[in-house]
Structure formats: structure tokens, C-alpha cells
Amino acid sequence: MRVPVLVLAASLIPSVAAAKASSFETPFYVGIWSPSAKACKADPLKVEGAIFRIERSQIIWNETTCTFKLSAARATAGGMRIPATCDSEGTTSRTTYAFDRVDGRMRMNGHVMARCKDSDWRTGYE
Questions:
Q1: Cβ contacts of residue 116 below 8 Å, gap of 6+?
Q2: pTM of the full structure
Q3: For residue range 72-126, what is the model confidence (pLDDT) as tens digits?
Q4: What is the CA radius of gyration of the chain?
Q5: 8 sits in which H/E element
Q6: Which residues are paired to 96 by β-bridges?
Q7: Measured between alpha carbons, how far is 86 from 81 in angstroms, rounded to an integer?
Q8: What's the CA gap between 63 and 124, in Å, rounded?
Q9: How far apart (Å, rounded) are the C-alpha atoms in residues 19 and 42?
């Protein structure tokens, strides 16, 4: 009886290792994003929502920071749904972000986004 138990336990090890490795991978939505490549260069103080910085645990733009509740995130067929608590100019709100992969691009809340260069990131308050 010990042999089948050991075989079963040994067969689970690669799955556990794969699950742990994938939890350390950078999510596809992490990066600097904008509604268009042109907007990557726009002044974020003049164009609301021109550029977003999305990290593993938060999204930042203009004077808004939304902290993701990663423990409540759920995978979907094409991406992730992540609830967040947002703080903007003294006001707190809650929302859910939907990140999906579409033809090699990222869609955020239904809008296909362009990936910007890391050097494009700025808040406008520099």
C-alpha cells in the first residue's frame, strides 16, 4: 500500500511547483498603459486618463491610486477581475477592474490599451 501513496505524492510535486512558480510571475497587466500610443506622451494634467501605471497590487493615474484586493481576484477565460479600493483627492470609492488579453494586447474595463515605455510614466507634478 505504501508504493501507490508514494507514487501519488510524487506525481503531485510538479503541479505544486508549477503553481508556486506561476504565482511569482509578473501579471500581464503590469506596466505603463494608455488608451493610445499618442496619449503615452500627453500631459496627464491636461488629458484625464492619458496614462496609467499598473503594478501587481495597485493602479495609479493623476491623483488617484486604487489598491487591488488580490485575495478576492478571480481568473476569467481571458484575464482577471480584481476588486479595488480607490483614493482620489480625499474621496474613497470601490470598483472592480477587468483585465483581459485581446490579440496580444491588454483590455482594461473594455478598452484596448497601448503599452507605453517605462520612461513615458509621469504624474504631471514632477
A1: 31, 32, 33, 34, 37, 40, 51
A2: 0.76
A3: 999 998 899 999 999 999 999 999 999 999 887 899 999 999 999 999 888 766 5
A4: 19
A5: helix 2-23
A6: 83
A7: 15
A8: 10
A9: 40
